[in-house]
């Protein structure tokens, strides 16, 4: 049963309803922010969230629209809008709430959505006139229709059975393309088949969904793009679908990157098709170099003894690897940091990335650490994958925090960059992003010094 939200007069009584002024905002996080952040342009690719929501606005509702990503530009406090839609991930949720409270005080209608409001809708509801839980393909248009009829509900939830086929294409032209290293981002699928215990995907979004391949190809053609990034959480969740997609991409002669799992290496046809279709970079979650950790996080499909072969097989196809590693599992000790640096150097991983194990709300990991009394705090702004927010088992929080910083810095020292890229197939492709991560790595400490997350260390 849906609760009715703060009431809004129906369209005819509101002169400003012709047209409705809609603002869609993506708030900054501690690290991803305009001017003072450390995600340089070389690390930024266009998020599809706001362009997708823009495309979903029902054509029958006359409107003026503005999209603002606070990672690349400032959000004005005196925003001219009737309805403000704010997208929040966990790290940006305190900023989202700050903006929401501010605009509500100004009498604007505020809607919160995205992964964090999906994970903790009751918390988000304290700051919004309406909260959208889950995907919004059907609920966001409904919300706007209700709003224009003065009938806004407090909670909207995407109903089961969502189909991605036949949806309008994201309105990418509404974000400034020049602020991203790749503006041509797209999605073929959503969700994932796995259930890693630290990941928000199984809790927030559940079973995988797919755009029909023909529509993905049409999207690529419409963009006229030659460099693409797939935002999919696991592009090969359905291998047969992925093969069809790769086959259809071959004639387009594009270069693309995307997220997959180590499983891609064990299907030669899939990997060959990926290479033939123009794949130049794959983000692969290796997560850890200890089998106990892989078991702990329910990533049993990652077999440590096969990591070298996985890397070799991908590199053989001239595909660069963005390898992601997580520190802070219960078996992790301070030795893991150096061991991981050695691993990425030896295997010449083009773009290694490190994260602190982060117990995002709603995940099994969060529930366990909370039950064990090991969460240091629930300041969501520090739940950004780079701050330690829980008590590790075999080291202090401070050791974990500074161990990761050391790992980043050593990996992205000039020597480290050259050792991994020199004489590799993809020197020039990977160099710019490496310099972007070098900038990031050497500035992370600024964010440790300005906050005090380690009181319990
Ligand atoms: C692009 C991207 C980025 C970009 C930009 C992010 C940004 N603007 O904040 C970059 C590279 C900078 C980035 C960085 C990070 N990211 Co990121 N990123 C993504 C990614 C790959 C794609 C987002 C996207 O375009 N999705 C496609 C759109 C269509 O889906 P959607 O966003 O879910 O939106 C739908 C619904 O959620 C809903 N919805 C969303 N917002 C709203 C708002 C309203 C008003 C309504 C009505 C509906 C609605 O409607 C949409 C249509 O159904 C997602 C994974 C993913 N595939 O979603 C991760 C993801 C969002 N990132 C994540 C994380 C953890 C991070 C980092 C912390 C990683 C790190 N350690 O550095 C940083 C933090 C950045 C920050 N903001 O502080 C997590 C968030 C988890 C969480 N609970 O916070 C995700 C989900 C990945 C994951 N596997 O867990 N990221
Ligand atoms: S494979 Fe990746 S997207 Fe899928 S559940 Fe695990 S961490 Fe999440």
Strand content: 5-15%
Strands across the major sheet, in which order?
2-1-3-4-5-6
Mean pLDDT: 91
Fill in the CATH topology of the largest domain.
TIM Barrel
* Residue runs with pLDDT of under 50 for 5 or more positions: 449-457
Helix content: 25-40%
Instruction: State the domain count.
Output: 2
Q: Outline, from the CA principal axes?
A: globular
Q: How far is the N terminus from the C terminus?
A: 45 Å
For the largest beta-sheet, the strand count, sense and barrel status come to:
6 strands, parallel
Question: How is this structure best described in words?
Answer:
- The chain is an alpha/beta fold and 457 residues long.
- The chain has two domains: 11-157, Cobalamin-binding domain (Rossmann fold), CATH 3.40.50.280; 184-450, Aldolase class I (TIM Barrel).
- 34% of the residues lie in helices and 15% in strands.
- It contains 17 helices and 14 strands.
- Helix 1 (49-55) links the parallel strand 1 (20-26) and strand 2 (63-69).
- Helix 12 (335-346) runs parallel beside helix 14 (397-411).
- Residues 449-457 have low confidence and may be disordered.
- Iron/sulfur cluster (SF4) binds at residues 192, 194-196, 199, 201-202, 233-234, 261, 285.
Entry keywords:
six-stranded parallel β-sheet, disordered C terminus, Rossmann fold, 15% strand, binds iron/sulfur cluster, 34% helix, TIM Barrel, alpha/beta, 457 residues
């Amino acid at each position: 049963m849906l609760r009715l939200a703060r009431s809004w007069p129906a369209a005819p009584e509101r002169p400003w309803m012709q047209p409705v002024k809609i603002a869609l905002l993506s708030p900054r996080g501690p690290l991803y922010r305009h001017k003072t952040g450390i995600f340089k342009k070389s690390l930024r690719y266009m998020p599809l969230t706001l362009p997708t929501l823009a495309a979903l606005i029902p054509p029958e509702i006359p409107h003026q629209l503005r999209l603002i990503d606070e990672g690349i530009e400032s959000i004005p406090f005196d925003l001219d809008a009737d309805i403000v839609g704010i997208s929040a991930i966990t790290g940006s949720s305190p900023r989202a709430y700050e903006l929401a409270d501010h605009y509500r005080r100004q009498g604007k209608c505020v809607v919160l959505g995205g992964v964090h409001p999906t994970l903790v809708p009751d918390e988000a509801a304290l700051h919004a006139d309406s909260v959208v839980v889950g995907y919004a393909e059907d609920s966001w248009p409904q919300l706007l229709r209700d709003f224009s009829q003065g009938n806004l509900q407090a909670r909207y939830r995407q109903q089961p059975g969502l189909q991605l086929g036949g949806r309008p294409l994201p309105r990418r032209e509404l974000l400034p393309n020049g602020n991203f290293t790749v503006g041509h981002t797209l999605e073929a699928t959503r969700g994932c088949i796995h259930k890693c215990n630290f990941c928000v995907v199984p809790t927030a979004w559940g079973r995988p969904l797919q755009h029909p391949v023909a529509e993905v190809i049409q999207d690529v053609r419409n963009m006229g793009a030659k460099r693409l990034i797939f935002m999919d959480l696991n592009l090969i969740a359905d291998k047969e679908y992925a093969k069809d997609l790769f086959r259809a991409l071959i004639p387009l002669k594009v270069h693309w990157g995307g997220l997959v799992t180590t499983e891609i290496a064990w299907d030669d046809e899939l990997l060959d098709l990926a290479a033939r279709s123009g794949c130049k970079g794959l983000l692969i979650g290796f997560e850890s170099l200890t089998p106990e950790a892989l078991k702990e996080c329910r990533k049993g499909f990652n077999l440590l003894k096969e990591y070298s072969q996985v890397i070799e097989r991908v590199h053989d196809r001239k595909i660069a690897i963005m390898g992601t590693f997580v520190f802070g599992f219960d078996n992790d000790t301070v030795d893991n940091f150096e061991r991981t640096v050695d691993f990425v150097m030896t295997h010449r991983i083009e773009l290694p990335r490190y994260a602190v194990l982060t117990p995002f709300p709603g995940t099994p990991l969060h529930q366990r650490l909370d039950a064990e009394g090991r969460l240091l705090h629930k300041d969501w702004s520090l739940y950004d994958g780079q701050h330690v927010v829980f008590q590790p088992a075999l080291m202090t929080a401070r050791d974990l925090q500074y161990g990761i910083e050391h790992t980043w810095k050593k990996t992205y020292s000039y020597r480290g960059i050259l050792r991994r890229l020199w004489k590799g197939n993809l020197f020039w492709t990977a160099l710019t992003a490496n310099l972007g991560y070098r900038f990031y790595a050497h500035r992370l400490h600024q964010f440790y010094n300005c906050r005090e997350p380690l009181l319990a260390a």
